Amino acid sequence: MADHFDVLVIGGGVIGLSVAWRAAASGLRVAVVDPAPASGASHAAAGMLAPVSEVTYTEEPLLQLGLASLERWPAFAAELEAASGHDLDYRTDGTLDVAFGSDDLAALDELATFIGKLGLPAQRLTGRECRRLEPMLAPSVRGGLLAGGDAWVDPRRVTGALLAALERLGCALIRSRVAGLEASGETVTGVRLATGESVGAGQVILAAGVWSGALEGLPPEVLPPVRPVKGQIMRLRSPTPILQRCVRGVVHGSHVYLVPRGDGELVVGATQEEMGFDTRVTAGGLWELLRDARELVPGVTELEVADVVAGLRPGTPDNLPLIGPTSLPGLSLATGHHRAGVLLAPLTADLCSGEADRGLSAICSPLRFQEAPPTSPTPEPGVSTPEGSR
Question: Deepest of 179, 182, 335, 350, by most Cβ within 10 A of its Cβ?
Fold first, then answer.
């Protein structure tokens, strides 16, 4: 093989880069393989770190992962900023969930009750109290819920900082596509690049997002069950921020969020579309975002359009990520994070390095989707075994 590393990470998004950074910082020799790092779902993401405001009734295990990772974010951000010299625009001002109509308000009341039963910190607010916090909110906003412990960050700055930190640590960045895995017997020993070269590794970590399920050389039972979930998002710009905190809203049943940046950028997103690998930005998708955002914050229509993009989130059948060793020795997964990739980056890095408790590891173990290979029955004493079956 052309080269050999302790850890080889397939995928250069926020998950793969975080895993690689944690491994390289521990002294391991690390390589990241990606033809265009930091250009996929991480580039499109808004960067909300909001496990409380995004909690749903059937996904309490995901909430447990989110809270554990949110707790890690302050130290992760401080360490990464120091290691890279980059500002991440990491903010901890909380998320304000607001309701537009009577039905939306009723749904928000139910959510507040559910959050209260879980013992999570959140404050119920009237419409007037919401506007006192965010004066640019529309007069028609009926009420809100403030999750003061939520945070957010700029994913594009995070991936840029991770690339800089990895470069300082001497991590190899191989800008190529992985064509398949290399193996010795049943043990993964590296990867085969599209160029025809092979790169060896003691451990291979598959963190290729929606493309993780298309890697050649994997047995069917080991292929991660990920699917693309399209999300369209737009970035608006003003001289100064028009919001001080992340605002999420429900408008006639449709969800929309607005995430402010320190430089005046406002991220508006995001659609959720089961459209396969389609990454087209559509007029209809952007119209829906602006329509709903305008109902909550009328001033958005006066802002400059800075960027529009569509990304593909890697979804799984149970909406939980796939993190940890597979049944194939030498191969681990770090994929399937769906809408929570940025939030779960610190925890994923810890799980892949063995620095998180077993309870969290069990929640997202890839083995939950992998059937154990059939084993030959052990012959009873005195029963002969056919020669060909040994």
Answer: 335
Closest C-alpha among 329, 328, 325, 333 to residue 358:
325
End-to-end CA distance of the chain: 32
pLDDT band per the 50, 70, 90 thresholds, residue 378: very low
**Nearest in space to 247 (alpha carbons), one of 99, 78, 30, 33:** 99
Q: Give residue 344's pLDDT.
A: 98
What is the spatial distance between Cα 90 and Cα 86, in angstroms, rounded to a whole number? 11
Angle of helix 155-168 relative to helix 14-25, nearest 10 degrees, comes to 30
Average pLDDT over residues 91-104: 91
Is residue 310 a contact partner of residue 280, using CB atoms and an 8 Å limit? yes
Give the integer Cα–Cα distance in Å for 220 and 212: 13
Return mean pLDDT, the chain: 91
**pLDDT tens digit sequence for 114-139:** 999 999 989 999 999 999 999 999 99
Residue 380 has pLDDT above 80, yes or no: no
* Stated pTM of the model: 0.92
Distance CA 305, CA 302 (A): 9
Strands 265-269 and 227-237, by their bridges, are: antiparallel
Residue position matching structure tokens 């916090």: 133
